[in-house]
Amino acid sequence: MIVTHNLGFPRIGPNRELKWAVEAYWRGELNQSQLLATGQQLRREQWQTQSAAGLDLIPVGDFSWYDQVLDMSLLLGVIPTRFGNIEDHNALDTYFRMARGRAPSGADTTACEMTKWFDTNYHYLVPEFEPAQEFKLCSTKLFDEIREATALGHKIKPVLLGPLTYLWLGKGVSATFDKLNLLNKLLPVYGAILQQLKALGVEWVQIDEPILALDLPPAWQQAFEFSYSQLLVPGLKKLLTTYFDDLGDNTHLACRLPVDGLHIDLVRAPQQLQTVLDQLPAYKILSVGVIDGRNIWKSNLLPMLDQLKKIQGRIGERLWIAPSCSLLHCPVDLNNETELESEIKNWLAFAVQKLAELSLLKQALDTESLSLYQLLKDNTTAITSRTVSTRIHNPQVKERSGRVTADMSQRFSAYPQRAKIQQQILNLPLLPTTTIGSFPQTQAIRSARQLFKQGKLSQLDYEHTIKTHIHETVQKQLAIGIDVLVHGEAERNDMVEYFGEQLDGFAFTQQGWVQSYGSRCVKPPVLYGDVARSKPMTVEWTRYAQSLTDKPMKGMLTGPVTILQWSFVRDDQPRQDTCRQIALALRDEVVDLENAGINIIQIDEPALREGLPLRKTKWRDYLAWATESFRLCASGVKNQTQIHTHMCYAEFNDIIDSITQLDADVITIETSRSQMALLDAFKHYNYPNAIGPGTYDIHSPRIPSTEEMTALLTTAAKYIPVERLWVNPDCGLKTRHWPEVETALTNMINAAKQLRTTFAKTP
Ligand code: GLN
Ligand code: ZN
């Protein structure tokens, strides 16, 4: 009998019940026991769904109020001193204060930092270690949930984040100390946790060590053997789970660790199977992650079955099967989609459907019954229909993609010549001022959009409303005195969805939510087919905005890499091919904007960096096609048209070359939160084009003063020649309110003016 198991299930609930409950609790509309009851109910349903799908082992401990790494910090007692002594506070509120700085009880405190979980769009809370960090068991959540699930009769496998990955993900409060030194203190606490699991009757525990799919320094590699030999608990078996990439140079190490089983991701890294099979000792379980936990496509079960039979032939009952990683990254249940075209729906599988696939694989491996035959046949029919569907395959798009030549991703002249021509037309002052694109999305805008979508507001009335907002936004920018204006993005709900809705090849779900961080969920579009643009998408709004002023109006587009990165992308062709198709569609928009008299066009690429592969060896390839796509999209215009790009959350130091290769005339970046520390990259590297380092943090309601911004810009001017320096906030302003925005921007303009005088005096 083949064992099936799951690494983690989405905890948000099919209708985002967790989000609603947690937010109501934060607002004081739900008390703590009501919140706990909602959580318990959700866990019950999630376990029930998984048991009913026929899984042999279901995960426990994957449920989280906010984030599983933060859960781990509480379990291990890694609670920074500013949150006080946990015994003196309500523990759940301490947890929420660590997550977001505030909770119904306890004083507001600066929250812990948040960052992306490997190469996903999920964000975890970064553990903070003091040099003298102590660890102690501080939470019973995991043990309580184990009792809860066992009492309900489920066959379970608790999930723990492994000690090395936990340390790796954290940060030391002082830069000089080595986190790895904490291992000796950390391991005994892990030991105590494992002892408790054993006492609770647990047979298998899942220990996640996804850092085994990264390039690790030798000291970290060596720490694995040492750590796991300290964690032997007789009678308790460990399944070491890895995912998101290849074990690569850690294969030997991972296979040899003193654990009882190893899970590998065969979706992201199918090539590792043979080596692992060759190296895995004969007493160990091999769990293969064959169902894609990161995407929403139905699995092609027949070839998978063939492959599994071969593995089974080699290792027999030691074979386990599972999704590639936790299903946290998938929407919950496809059955809740009532409006998706049935043809497209038939190609998809969300978490619930993925578990059904798993159980079908298991049955087909164990028996050969006729009813299975029908199910497998249905699967094959769906897969085949996807390969031939005219909805997906557009010969014109494929043909155009094939015709792309190298010169198409190159501007006519190099930056210095372009810059001169552009300046003749634009006639901008020294230190030109601009914004990143969006202005406050007011309630009025949102409700107009909602009414329009519900059919309660006519197209004409909707357009009129949006134009009124654009008009207002332009007037306000003129009054503040900004040099390069924007229309404000009032018509956009989301920077990817807005374009996806107008491009062929995208579909939208109603309930396809995935947790991004805490109670925040995102609903990525489904990019299922060849991408084409049937008509201009932004030209009318931009043209209208430009008609209101003689100052330059900046066109605003989302770049190809970001659209790719923030969608569920088709898996039937390489990502770079899909990216190129998006780039070509956007290229037409760029040219149309130019023809409509727009002299400056910004192409946002905030997701460029997060698309970086986990393994450094794969960076070059990715960066080459990603930057090429950007240039393909941007280079259809004449020299005189100024191309801007914008990025946030970018740590530039290691990819600065690729940023240069984008060859944007101007790049605006996020730097204000780090007091321009991000500009370090520019200290030693002579970035050749113009840069606008963000001068104020739009994520905070705090209004920076003119002096503060003058100081930041003075710092920036040390690294970037002032002739190539722009002045702007660090991201879009859509989440802010008008009064703060007006004051902050006025201060920003004054800072620019002051510096212009200073620099005029000291040429
Ligand atoms: N133009 C977008 C805006 O201003 C950019 C958003 C982003 O960088 N995430 O909202
Ligand atoms: Zn941004």
Helix content: 40-55%
Mean pLDDT equals 95
Q: Helical region count?
A: 27
Separation, N- and C-terminal Cα atoms: 80 Å
> How many DSSP E strands?
23
Main sheet: which strands, in order across?
A: 1-12-11-10-9-8-6-2
Radius of gyration, CA atoms, in whole angstroms: 27 Å
> Which stretches of 5+ consecutive residues score pLDDT under 50?
none
Strand content: 5-15%
Explain what the structure shows.
With 763 residues, this protein is of the alpha/beta class. Helix content is 42%, strand content 13%. The strands form 6 sheets. An 8-stranded parallel sheet has the order 1-12-11-10-9-8-6-2. Helix 22 runs parallel beside helix 23.
Question: Outline of this structure?
Answer:
It is built from 27 helices and 23 strands.
Q: Which features does this protein show?
A:
single chain, 763 residues, 13% strand, binds glutamine, binds zinc ion
Write the layout of secondary structure elements.
Elements: E1 3-4, H1 17-27, H2 32-52, E2 58-60, H3 68-75, H4 91-100, E3 114-116, E4 123-125, E5 128-129, H5 141-151, E6 156-161, H6 163-169, E7 171-172, H7 183-199, E8 204-208, H8 218-230, E9 237-241, H9 251-256, E10 261-265, H10 273-279, E11 285-291, H11 301-315, E12 319-323, H12 342-345, H13 351-366, H14 370-388, H15 395-402, H16 415-426, H17 443-453, H18 459-480, E13 485-486, H19 497-500, E14 503-507, E15 514-517, E16 520-522, E17 526-533, H20 539-547, E18 553-558, H21 560-565, E19 568-569, H22 575-595, E20 600-604, H23 619-634, E21 642-647, H24 656-661, E22 666-669, H25 680-683, E23 690-693, H26 706-719, H27 738-761
Bound molecules: glutamine (GLN) and zinc ion.
